[in-house]
Design goal:
By secondary structure, the protein is an alpha/beta fold. The protein is 42% helix and 14% strand.
Length: 321
């Protein structure tokens, strides 16, 4: 039985991945930033600052596969004095330190969960694919792309297999940030002026991402590859709101409003980037992983949204939100 180590194990994806690996009877080691004992049959290690040159040697003994999820995540309003430096410290240098230690310890495969933002911010005439020339725009995306390049170099020098996965926005039970805010607005039945937004976006339910990551960790054909993953269904904002409302058993109120006017107003108050994420397309072609690894999402978007909505309602009832 393979020994699989997970960094960032207490996050949205990490918790789900650990849970699924335990169900599938793998030996799991989990690395977290705090003291966690979330699951039985998981060996937890507390890692406070991944960027500070951690000595991984003793913790990687007998590990066959690492799934590296830990990262400084993208934030809309970054207040750091030097955001790129801070992102690189964790997402590049922390990743390189771990990968070099993994190769030295004899780890066979390193699965790196990157970001679709490496491809760029928006799509226009065609979906993003693995053959695109990367066009990272912000500090977070640049740090992920630099990490990808560094991992390929380590792979070439050491022979440790590297698999890179680039997901879009991930949702599921425990989701935070903008997706959680949209759930709140829809649940409160507030009208949203988004009926005129026709741009579509790809998303991925955490259960689908976890399944894809496991396939990438196990399938021999994945070695050395980069894969873009999604639910396989791109939706416009009005479509997503309607699906959310249905999952929450609430009506949806979506009003027409010119997108051009919306962008002008947003620019005037310094919120254009936020509005762009609502009004511009980001569509993924995930056919490569489907064809090469015979992978397909085990959950539909509707099923994923229902699980997310049920978690949200229970959290409200219990006072956790």
């Amino acid at each position: 039985m393979l020994n699989i180590a997970i960094t960032g194990a207490s996050g949205l994806v990490g918790k789900s991945l650990c849970h699924e690996l335990v169900l599938r009877k793998f030996n799991v080691s989990a690395f977290t930033r705090g003291s966690h004992n979330l699951l039985e049959n998981v060996q937890y290690h507390m890692i406070v600052d991944i960027e500070n040159g951690i000595n991984w040697d003793a913790m990687l003994d007998k590990v066959d596969v690492i799934v590296h999820l830990a990262a400084r995540v993208h934030v809309m309003q970054d207040t750091a004095k030097n955001p790129l430096q801070d992102f690189l410290a964790v997402n590049l240098h922390g990743t390189v330190n771990l990968a070099q230690a993994a190769a030295k310890a004899g780890v066979k495969r390193f699965v790196f969960v990157s970001s679709i933002k490496v491809n760029g911010e928006f799509t226009e005439n065609q979906p993003f694919s693995e053959s695109d020339i990367p066009q990272p725009q912000d500090a977070y995306a640049i740090s992920k792309w630099e990490a990808e390049k560094a991992l390929r170099k380590i792979e070439k020098e050491t022979g440790m297999q590297v698999v890179i996965v680039r997901p879009p926005l991930v949702y599921g039970a425990g989701v935070k940030a903008n997706f959680a805010s949209l759930l709140k607005v829809v649940n409160k039945k507030w009208p949203l002026p988004l009926a005129s937004v026709q741009a579509k976006r790809s998303l991925i339910y955490v259960g689908n991402l976890v399944d894809a990551v496991i396939v990438c960790a196990l399938n021999p054909k994945a070695a050395g590859q980069t894969y873009l993953v999604s639910d396989g269904e791109a939706v416009s904002m009005p479509q997503l709101i309607k699906k959310m409302a249905l999952s929450l058993n609430k009506p949806s109120y979506i009003l027409p409003f010119p997108v051009s006017t919306m962008r002008l107003l947003a620019k005037a108050i310094g919120k254009l980037a936020s509005v762009d994420r609502l009004t511009q397309s980001l569509v993924i072609d995930s056919s490569k992983i489907r064809q090469e690894l015979d992978w397909k999402p085990p959950f539909t978007m509707d099923q994923g949204l229902k699980v997310t909505a049920d978690w949200y309602k229970k959290s409200l009832e219990s006072g956790r939100l």
